[in-house]
Predict the 3D structure of the following.
Amino acid sequence: YSRKHGSGKNILLDFLQTYVFGDRVTFYTAGLETVLEKHNHLLKNKKVVIVDELASSSDKFISNFDKLKSIMTGPFLTINPKGTNQFLLKNVLAWFLISNHDDCIRMEPTDRRYFCLEVSESKVGNKSYFKELGATFNQALGDLFYSYVIRRGESKIVNIRIPPITKLKQSMINRGLNTSLKFLGQLRKEEYIDDDSTLAGMEL
């Protein structure tokens, strides 16, 4: 996530798609409609899904939230091609979601799916910086990056299967709380003194 356009959110994923994952197992799409539509044969034999320009929350997105959650974490993926029978595949999809809206996902307090990162906006609009950065990308660098990630996972220094609660993630969780929970959270933040005047006129 970054609030501003041109912060370089896509350049890392371009690198991963081309030199780490490979185009054959990567599916790139703008918006959620393609991956949530009935005929989703484009997800067949894919390992990585990159969703660019994830829209801010709307009635349509909220209605699709449970479906998206099921696709992300379900053990099987139902592939429904046009004109033929649907079939099941083992679900091995990993998801990357890119957005300029911090309210694009309904995040639950107990969420263990999302690792939320806020991209620095210090290089917004600096085309020469990103051009020079992109020029350093090649297959040798992709291989080194892949080996680095694998070693990190095996070292047990960081459990990569448990996403941390970043400041952005906590903010997104708070946005998804119902009104009652938001009210209680606000009370918890504020100093509250229980005295006779507070309880005046109240029946307990």
